[in-house]
Amino acid sequence: MGNGEAARPAEAPAGAPGTPRTIRARIAAQFGALAVVSLGWLTPLRGVCAPVFQCHSCPLSTFACPLGVIINFVSLRVWPLITIGILGLAASFGGRIWCGWACPFGLLQDGLRRLPVRKRELPRWTRGIKYAVLGVLVLGVPAVAPGSYWTFCGFCPAGTLESAIPWTIMGAASPLRWSFALRVGILLGVLALAVVVPRGFCRALCPLGAILAIGNRFSLLRMHPRAEGCTSCDRCARRCPMGMHPLDEMNGPECTRCGECLATGCIGLGAK
After folding, report:
1. Domain count of the chain?
2. What is the pLDDT of residues 172-205, one digit of tens each?
3. Among 24, 98, 171, 239, which is 20 to 30 Å from 252 by CA?
4. Residue 9 domain-assigned?
5. In a domain? residue 5
6. What is the DSSP string of 7-42?
C-alpha cells in the first residue's frame, strides 16, 4: 500500500470457516444439543453424563450432570470412572469446543450478550476462579463433608433455572426457603453478568469448563494460524466472546472454539 501500511486480509469468502455460515452452523448445533439434552421424557439416559453444563434434576433432562456425578461419587469415596472417561474423551476430541457448540447454558449466555448494553471486561485473574470452584465446591467439600449442602450443586445456576424453579412452579417444593432465595439470587447475578460480560460465567466460574480446558492444548480439533498471516488488526480479539486474544492465546484454556475469530481469515479450526 502507498502509505507503507500492511494490507489487511479480506474477510473469508462465503462458506469458509468463521463466515456467517459457520456461525449459523454453530448456533444450529447449540439448539440441536439443547433439544438432545431435553429429551428425558422420551429417552431417559440419566445413567450417562454429557460434557455440557446442564442439570440432571431438570424434568426434561436426558443425561446426568457430570459435575453432579463427580460430587456424589467423591462423597461416597468412589472414583467416577465412567464420567472421567467421558470427560476425558470429550476433552481429547475438542477441549472446550463443547462449551462453544453444545452447552445449553452457553447458548443462554450467547443470547444475553446480544442485548444492547455496554460491555465490560473482567480482570485477567478472574479466569482462575473456576479452578478454585472446581477444587473447593466440586472436589473439596464433598470429600471433607459428604452430604453437605454447600457443594457446587447447592449454588449451580443451571440447576436453579432447570430444576429448582420448574419443580417449585409445579408445587413439588416451597418457594419460601432460604436456600431457594439464595439460589435464585445467584442465578440472577450470573444472568446479569452475562449481559454485561459476554460468557461471564464461562470465563470465571464454570468448573466444567475448567475440566474441559485441560484438553485445549492437545485435543484433536485445535485452532491454527492460516497461511495469510497476522497483520495485528486485532479483529479476532474484538470478536472473541471470551475476552482473549485468539492469536496470542491460541489453544489456551479459555478458548471455546466458537468460531467467531475465524471470520478474520487469519485463523483456522481443524484436526492437527
Report:
1. 1
2. 888 888 999 999 999 999 999 999 999 999 999 9
3. 24
4. no
5. no
6. PPPPPPPTTSTTSHHHHHHHHHHHHHHHHHTT-TTT
